[in-house]
Design brief:
The protein is mostly helical. One of its GO terms (biological process) is protein transport by the Tat complex.
Amino acid sequence: MSDTNKSSLLKAIGSKGTTLEAEMSFFDHLDVLRKHLIRAVIAIGVFTGIAFYFNEEILDKVIFGPKKPDFWTYRMMCKLVEHFPSLGKDMCITKINGEIINTEMAGQFNLQLNVCVMCGIVLGFPYLLWEIWRFIKPALHEKERKSASGFVFFASVLFIIGIIFGYFIICALSINFLTGYTVSSEIKNTFTIDSYVSSITTLTLGTGIIFELPIIIFILSKLGLMTPKLMRSSRRYAAVIILIIAAIVTPTPDILTMLTVAAPLFLLYEASIFVSAYIEKKKKKADAAFYAN
């Protein structure tokens, strides 16, 4: 065999070995990710089991809480009216219209199952973030690890704040508005349990995800896909969208109530601009240091 053929054969074998090594590395990473996700699923399963144990309290006080006139949000609104009569009596909610019905044989069983699983996901979300962080962390450089060291904590805190705000404010006001909204006196509002629960979970979890906006902006800014200039130029469109959302969920047309709902969303957007500007500043500083050397 000539030297040229030997060299080609050795290169082919080396190339094949590199390919196999890369493939094994890829599948090894998949296996590691699978283990992290399994642990997260087990944690969610444990929280789901705990939710099953307390299912009566969860259903009565949490799920059907916004359907009752003595719900915390409605009581606070009535107290505000007592101290500030100028807000108007309409802001004090003393009755929630509409009835919740079950139209399926397995409806109430599915209600209990879905609610407990949803509680498990909400309670297990911080641990899921922790497992994702543990999977990503080894691939990061030391500086990247330090800059993202608070990822799990801040993402969890923002999610929890979003869940609380979504449940006590967005969800409560939306339930009051939607159950009392009618286009004709001939139509009676009766809602299936699936429709009611899906509205609560969508509004609550949706707000929790929306409150992750600063974290999402942080990641997009790191990737160079988002800049503070773009966000500042889009501020007016964001303001319109926020005000529309606030106007929909508020039970009365007064500007004060609408701004109460919109204010946290405005602050969230401004915080996201600050995060993006911080990342851009660090990038420019790093580039300047690199070219200086």
